[in-house]
Amino acid sequence: MSDQTAAPRASLLSRFLRLRRGPWENLATILIGLGVVMLMQPFSATAYAYSFITILAGTAMFAIVSHFPE
Amino acid sequence: MTETTTSSALPEKLAGATPEVIARPIRGLSDKAIAWFFIGPTILLLLAINIFPLIWTIWLSFTNYRANRPNAEVKMVGLDWYHRILGDGDVWLAMQTTAHFVVWTIIIETVLGFGLAWLIDKKFRGHGLWTTVILIPMMLSPAVVGNFWTFLYQPQSGLFNYVVGFLTGIDPSSFQMLGSVRLSPWAIVIVDAWMWTPYVMLICLAGLRSIPDYIYEAAEVDRASPWRQFWSITLPMALPFIMLAVLFRGIENFKMFDMVNLLTGGGPGSTTEVVSITLKRQAFESWRTGYSSALAIILFVTVFGLANIYVKALNRVKQR
After folding, report:
1. Per DSSP, what are the bridge partners of residue B76?
2. C-alpha to C-alpha distances, B56 to A10, B49, B65, B86, B285, nearest whole angstrom
3. Does some domain include residue B92?
4. B60 within a domain of the structure (yes/no)
5. Nearest Cα to Cα of residue B303 among A42, A7, A39, A48
6. Interface contact A26, partner B, CB < 8 A
7. Does the pTM exceed 0.90?
8. Would you call A22 an interface residue with chain B, using a CB distance cutoff of 8 Å?
9. Each residue of A19-67: pLDDT tens digit?
10. Domain that holds residue B255
11. Domain spans of chain A, in order of start
12. Which residues of B touch A (CB under 8 A)?
């Protein structure tokens, strides 16, 4: 049972470690989307304060990982 | 045969007609050098009108420069403006106003645009004429749209108030779309939805027409109901196109300025002050050039990030 649960985790980690474009681009997209939500939400001033750095990190990551192989 | 000889001789004739002063320096160039010769002016123009202002704005965002005091000493303030903007309640409020505008226009435009595309795709009699009629608002300039909707929203003489009054029984002069704190955010949403729903419809129509007929034929053989066909075939297959329209309208409305400026100018008070209006007020009314440059860079990075997602979505649609 424990082997079955451990297998997908290892595969997700290995997908990131192989430095392929797909998973890294998805991560960058999530960061950008999260940053935009943080920028425009009306609930938390702290989230608003950290929104720009989140978007910047996502955008920079996107620019870098788009040069990774498919 | 004669035509081939004539056509092959034409470039040689033209080459011979080139003045020697121009021909001599070009003749010895490689293909790569000629390519650079042609694209060089475009690259220079791009650097001058796009890249240089961007780099200059980034530099200004780290200084206390004010455009109305060009001779004053310019000091570096580091990340001070960024810290202030990201802790400024007024800018945060402008971001929330922008969010209200972006979210509601996207919802309305997507639902109406997809619905219209679905109807137009049925190819009823006169569907070509109706497609053209529906597309007219999209062809107008935002300045024109802003002006004539200002007239339509007039409480005394405007057609909008009259129609609402006729349909609901409310006195047309009892409410002001542009002057009311409660209604003005919706007034700009209505105008944007009126103008840009046809655009979303066009993209959705492209998506619907890309679905092959044999899929529906197979579904009918399996006795799938029209409702089931819609949820299992139409919507999933048109979804990448809908996402494309949502992203494009999201980016465009995030930086919306002209129409809102003409309709309300950000008022009454600051109820319709979207972030691009805040930027204009800081830059050209308060003359805080450094501050407004930092705000412009924040907006630029946000739009650039969203544009990356847009290009990614576009590539996915292309792969289909």
Report:
1. B63
2. 46, 11, 12, 21, 21
3. yes
4. no
5. A39
6. no
7. no
8. no
9. 777 788 889 999 999 999 999 999 999 999 999 999 999 999 999 988 8
10. 87-319
11. 2-65
12. 82, 86-87, 89, 92, 95-96, 98-99, 102, 298, 301-302, 304-306, 308-309, 312
This complex has an ipTM of 0.82
CB A35 within 8 A of CB A54: yes
- Across the interface, whether the CB atoms of A33 and B304 are under 8 A apart is answered no
What is the CATH number for B228? 1.10.3720.10
Burial status of residue B38 (CB atoms within 10 A of its CB: 0-12, 13-18, 19 or more): exposed
Q: Using CB atoms, which residue from B92, B98, B308 is nearest to A48?
A: B92
* A64 contacts chain B (CB < 8 A): no
> For residue range B230-252, what is the model confidence (pLDDT) as tens digits?
999 999 899 889 988 998 899 89
Domain count, chain B: 1
User: pLDDT (tens digit, 9 = 90+) per residue, B108-130?
Assistant: 999 999 999 999 988 778 888 88
Task: Decide if B104 is inside a domain.
Answer: yes
Name every chain A residue with its beta carbon within 8 A of the beta carbon of B298.
52
Cβ distance B298 to A52 less than 8 Å, yes or no, reads: yes
* Predicted pLDDT at A53: 95
